[in-house]
Q: What sequence folds into this?
């Protein structure tokens, strides 16, 4: 039986500084991350000892050096937050890695909380810039100069399921799921065939089927083997193929449906052969065809559209769901996915309040009609970018949200609460509460450990290899009776 769901997202944001001829993305990223001053003393380290980015899920270790920053650089580049998240500098981008959650609705809440945290730090960073300069941040996936940055999804899986079993159904699923979770994009990049508008921002940048790298020769299925949990029991599927979405409805489906597919894989419930002959070519062809009519060559010699392939996966999930009990959120995800697939078959524009690429397409086409513009106009490209602007008063997605033109999944109150509070049903609760209650005694943090400095030069590391432990239900009373980290460690032994 498939293990219970644990998932989360990591968002790399696009950044620029207007009216700064000497703009340096790395120093600007350091500035914006450090402008978020939740930890005023800034002494907590990110524990790189617990990471191994060179481990490949296919069963080997790749050659290379594991980079570990010195203590000063570590502190400057990393913030671990009281809501259980990590906010840090990843190459030339600020990145927000949300806390572990157990369902798609909480993914939406905590991903949207991340947007607010980045926007808060952007405003604070702007007070430190020279007069006339302004930092801008976008939740998108490319800078139109050939550089792409990611939205990464993470799903806990049972290690007993072989990686080969995981990969085979995911290649056609990932190549075609963009028809309901793409973010939409004007034009093409990375030497792809020219187009006016495409479904996905990331599709042009994938060049191989399966690999470890995330920046060069990007794979549809990434093989990173860092479970951030008990390695004997779990693997973490690190998904790099998705777009950064603004629509809550799209985020909800993106993670909720993918989690259902993974559970089905673990339970051996993939019953239809849906393998594509060339997944890399297919992912681009699907993205460049908003009409959803392109026929993709299949491994069995036939041809199917992306919609037909997704219907095949939907049929399997419906049969799977009929044989077991889904929780209310899983049922809602499945109902919404089925409705979206039906709408895509009738007329994709029916989804112009729900699915990002369709919301954006409707918005841009309406503007083009009023202004008598075509797709090559620079104003149209600017509209595309402005859709992803994190400024609430400037971002076009937020304008549509205020006008009631996009469908919501969660409330503003839930999002704001998540800015300062961790989810209660995973180990993120213990991590976040330790940071809230004992900030001066926390020495280092990783997803699966937290270390305390107790004042006598000794460092005590608490391992958290089970993501389902450390929940509010099990540790709140322990934390309440532990006024210091030393008391916490003592009470944990009793």
A:
């Amino acid at each position: 039986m498939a293990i219970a769901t644990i998932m989360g997202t990591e968002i790399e944001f696009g950044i620029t500084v207007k009216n700064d001829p000497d703009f340096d993305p790395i120093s600007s990223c350091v500035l914006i991350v450090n402008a978020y001053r939740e930890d005023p003393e800034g002494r907590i380290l990110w524990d790189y000892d617990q990471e191994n980015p060179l481990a490949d899920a296919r069963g080997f270790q790749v050659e290379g050096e594991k980079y570990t920053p010195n203590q000063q650089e570590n502190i400057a580049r990393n913030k671990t937050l009281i809501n259980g998240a990590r906010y840090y500098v990843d190459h030339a981008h600020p990145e927000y890695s949300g806390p572990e959650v157990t369902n798609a609705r909480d993914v939406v809440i905590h991903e949207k909380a991340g947007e607010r945290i980045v926007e808060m730090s952007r405003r604070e960073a702007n007070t430190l810039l020279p007069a006339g300069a302004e930092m801008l941040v976008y939740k998108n996936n490319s800078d139109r100069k050939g550089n792409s940055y990611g939205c990464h999804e993470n799903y806990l899986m049972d290690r007993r399921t072989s990686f080969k079993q995981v990969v085979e159904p995911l290649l056609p699923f990932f190549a075609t799921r963009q028809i309901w979770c793409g973010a939409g994009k004007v034009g093409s990049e990375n030497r792809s065939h020219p187009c006016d508008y495409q479904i996905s921002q990331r599709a042009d940048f994938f060049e191989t089927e399966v690999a470890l790298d995330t920046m060069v020769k990007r794979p549809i299925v990434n093989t990173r083997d860092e479970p951030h949990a008990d390695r004997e029991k779990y693997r973490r599927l690190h998904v790099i193929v998705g777009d950064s979405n603004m629509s809550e409805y799209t985020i909800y489906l993106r993670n909720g449906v993918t989690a259902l597919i993974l559970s089905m894989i673990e339970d051996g419930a993939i019953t239809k052969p849906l393998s594509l002959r060339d997944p890399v070519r297919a992912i681009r062809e699907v993205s460049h065809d908003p009409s959803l009519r392109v026929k993709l060559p299949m491994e069995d010699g036939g041809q199917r559209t992306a919609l037909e392939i997704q219907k095949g996966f939907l049929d399997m999930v419906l049969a799977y769901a009929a044989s077991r009990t889904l929780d209310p959120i899983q049922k809602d995800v499945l109902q919404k996915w089925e409705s979206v697939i039906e709408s895509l078959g009738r007329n994709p524009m029916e989804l112009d309040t729900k699915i990002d690429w369709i919301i954006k397409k409707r918005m841009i086409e309406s503007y083009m009609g009023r202004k008598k513009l075509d797709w090559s106009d620079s104003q149209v490209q600017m509209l595309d970018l402005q859709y992803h602007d994190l400024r609430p008063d400037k971002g076009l997605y937020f304008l549509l949200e205020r006008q009631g033109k996009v469908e919501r999944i969660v409330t503003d109150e839930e999002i704001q609460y998540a800015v300062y509070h961790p989810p209660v049903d995973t180990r993120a609760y213990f991590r976040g509460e330790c940071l809230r209650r004992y900030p001066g005694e926390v020495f280092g943090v990783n997803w699966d450990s937290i270390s305390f400095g107790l004042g006598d030069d000794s460092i005590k590391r608490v391992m958290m290899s089970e993501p389902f432990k450390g929940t509010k239900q099990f540790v709140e009373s322990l934390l309440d009776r532990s006024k210091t980290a030393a008391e916490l460690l003592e009470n944990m032994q009793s």
